[in-house]
Amino acid sequence: MNDTTALDLTVAAARSQRDGFASRVDVLDKVGALRTLPDDMHVTTDMVAEFYEVDRETILTVVKRNRDEIEGDGYRVVTKGVFEETFKLNVSSRSARVALFPRRAVLRVGMLLRDSVVARKVRDYLLDSEQTVRAMPVEPLSGLEYALALVNAEQRVLEEKRRADAGEKFKRAIEGGDGLGLREFHKKYFSSVTETEFMEHLYSKHYLIDQRGKGTLRESGPRAGTYRDGSQHRHPSYKGKEFFYLHANRDRAGGRRENTRVRPGRWEIALRDRLAAEGLTANENTSGLFVIEGGQLRGELA
Question: What's the structural domain count of the chain?
Fold first, then answer.
């Protein structure tokens, strides 16, 4: 057995080897589907636990034991206020701080985590790919071949940068908007069902908080004796925060108002597909969004 396959990446003595693999975040996509925050760059502790199919406490233990190493890959803890302002997501009132893992830190956890089948796949993939590279025959290049290889490599780098820049430009343009309101989303994708049926589906599937009649008592006016809706009615639930967010604006009197909107970009498309899979009848033809995939632009049609 060679040195690579015999290596145990989880031990303290393998720190330098782990550092050598730190940039191989592509491996995460090869072994599973990592759910990320809206910036597509960071994940929370719960998301890391979900990816590696372990409980939250297991991830916390790995971080505690290897904090310096994981912080070197960008791991940080922010306040609840900073998190909510950055990602437009609400956090449970019990949580004063939120841990953020970039992909490098998620990969680092996989190299350190023992009791996880997914983490073991991460390590196996890293070690197997390293072994394959070492086993490849190396033949000397002529001066001309070497020069051509350099030119080709430079062209590939420039092309990848051009694609990435174009993709980021369109992504900012598409996802930088405010997103559709509930009524707008319904009309665009599900106008074949009534708005009432559409909203009932969002309530029954727990995407939105249903506080109809859970507010204060009306003491005057034509509806005296009835109860107002609760203060969080129609707000995104914990489940719904993946697709919805609270959009803040000002009313005519200058007061702050919030309304629920669909996250623009790929989340809008994902929500449409999710609701259709749950039985809501989608419109036959809905288009107009683009989804960014690896710097490439792909039109998304219903």
Answer: 2
- For 46, residues 6+ apart whose C-beta sits below 8 A from its C-beta are 56
Is residue 267 included in any domain, yes or no?
A: yes
In this structure, the answer to whether residues 187 and 271 fall within a common structural domain is: yes
Summarised one tens digit per residue, pLDDT across range 198-224 is 999 999 999 999 989 888 888 888 888
pLDDT category at 288 given cuts 50, 70, 90 is: very low
Q: CA–CA separation, 266 vs 280, rounded Å?
A: 19
Is 32 among the domain residues?
A: yes
**83: alpha, beta or left? (left if phi > 0; alpha if psi -120 to 50):** alpha
Is 57 contained in some domain?
yes
pLDDT tens column, 62-71: 999 999 999 9
237/296 same-domain check:
yes
C-alpha distances out from residue 119 to 35, 49, 54, Å: 16, 11, 10
CB neighbours of residue 126 within 10 Å: 22
